[in-house]
Write a structure and sequence with these properties.
Length: 420
């Protein structure tokens, strides 16, 4: 991948093949999501300084690793990300290549968390052992996972190097109590120190057990959700040297091959009509965590080079779009009807606020797939609402979206809705 797209340098270059499963991190800010990702993959996925240097906000980051199992060493020490067993030096068996989707934990980045959560096959919920349980974003992220139907969850009880055994035990009981009536009730809780790289083998073992690779149909019509988009050209390049726009995201089904035509939706805004029109473009390059490829399938971050004018893909403008086999993409919606499912209380800050009914004319934020749009309520009848979207989205009916409302100056998750 071009230097502008990925922060993963050395480890991914050694990746034996394209990742086949996406595991997302979630949890409160500073509890160690990025550190755990690094402890497993060797990659600092968020690359805060890099992102800040380039003046872009912190987005969903990907980092890849290959899981190996040594045939000789007993579990869990047999699990590692190294081909030669770190314990006995024997050659390990490649289990699979895994991609970690590192979601930002900060409350203002919930949109990115939701986009990441939508793409995950399994979740790693990181909870710091030296803090009260639960912190606001721990609660919010778990609620978001539950809402999106994520059932494959492993809990990493991180920073155990900072607490005594007794404190770790007490914290563990608090975690058990907190997740008791949630989708994470039976999730294994693995005590680790991301910083000291303690118990990472047991964490890999838990991920192997809890998060299987989903069944995929390579003949299905291709569909990819865009989470990043770029102009990879250096400023001042000659027009003849320009590369087309690059779209980064996760394929959820099918395959994309070099030279394929792909359609992009909602597409480009037609200034005269004010409507978005889908665009068909050619695939000119493909890249995964394992390097350049002739074809790509679901798993990990896929970068699709196109013949689109890079001005359209510059600066993440295409985030929230879909690409895939022409003619097979979901419809574009400007006005939608949702079956509501509201929480009793809004989560995401220390105090829990009762969720009031949705009102006519109210401004909400709707996250569908990897898109995020402001939505104005045009009809509110009990459990069914209609909204006008500021930015149209292309998604399939039946998809569940996350609904947020501004409460005390901040967007807070208040529930979800299923697109009718
Ligand atoms: P994130 O916001 O959840 O991604 O958290 P980070 O991975 O950025 O970590 C937040 C801070 O906690 C950093 O200063 C890390 O060095 C520190 N940290 C992360 N894991 C551990 C750990 O296991 N032990 C200790 N002592 N510090 C940790
Ligand atoms: Mg982080």
């Amino acid at each position: 991948m071009s230097g502008q797209i990925t922060q993963q340098a050395e480890p991914s270059a050694l990746l034996p093949r394209q990742p086949e499963v996406d595991i997302g991190t979630s949890g409160h800010v500073d509890h160690g999501k990025t550190s755990v990702t690094r402890a497993i993959t060797g990659v600092w996925a968020s690359a805060h300084s890099e992102e800040l240097k380039r003046g872009i906000t912190i987005k969903v980051g990907y980092a890849d690793a290959a899981f190996y199992k040594c045939p000789r060493t007993p579990a869990p020490a047999c699990y590692s990300t190294s081909k030669t067993c770190p314990v006995c030096g024997a050659e390990g068996k490649l289990l699979r290549a895994v991609s970690f989707v590192d979601c930002p934990g900060h409350e203002s980045l919930m949109t990115n968390m939701l986009a990441g959560a939508f793409l995950m096959d399994g979740a790693l919920l990181v909870i710091a052992a030296n803090e009260q349980v639960p912190k606001p974003q721990t609660r919010e992220h778990l609620q978001a996972l539950q809402m999106l139907g994520m059932k494959k969850i492993v809990i990493a009880q991180n920073k155990i190097d900072l607490v005594t055994n007794e404190e770790a035990e007490k914290n563990r009981r608090d975690i058990e109590k907190f997740v008791e009536k949630t989708v994470a009730a039976s999730a294994p809780i693995v005590p680790i120190s991301a910083q000291q790289k303690l118990n990472i083998d047991a964490l890999i073992e838990a991920l192997e057990e809890v998060v299987p690779t989903p069944a995929r149909d390579p003949r299905a019509d291709s569909l990819m959700y865009v989470v990043r988009s770029f102009d990879v050209n250096r400023p001042g390049s000659e027009v003849s040297d320009l590369s087309g726009g690059v779209l980064g995201g996760s394929l959820v089904r099918g395959e994309i091959r070099m030279g394929d035509d792909v359609e992009l939706k909602p597409g480009m805004l037609d200034d005269r009509t004010g409507k978005y029109v889908p665009v068909v473009t050619k695939v000119t390059s493909l890249q995964t965590g394992a390097g350049r490829a002739d074809g790509v399938s679901p798993g990990g971050l896929v970068a699709v080079g196109t013949s689109l004018d890079p001005a359209f893909t510059k600066g993440d403008q295409m985030v929230g779009s879909v690409i895939g086999k022409p003619g097979s993409l979901p419809p574009t919606w400007e006005h939608i009807t949702l079956d509501l499912d509201l929480f009793e209380t809004a989560v995401g800050s220390a105090e829990l606020v009762k969720v009031d009914k949705v009102k006519l004319g109210e401004n909400l934020r709707l996250n569908l797939g990897t898109s995020s749009s402001q939505a104005v309520v045009t009809s509110a009848r009990g459990e069914v609402i209609e909204v006008d979207l500021k930015k149209p989205v292309a998604v399939e009916p039946g998809m569940r979206g996350a609904i947020s409302r501004r409460i005390a100056e901040r967007w807070r998750l208040i529930g979800s809705g299923v697109l009718k």
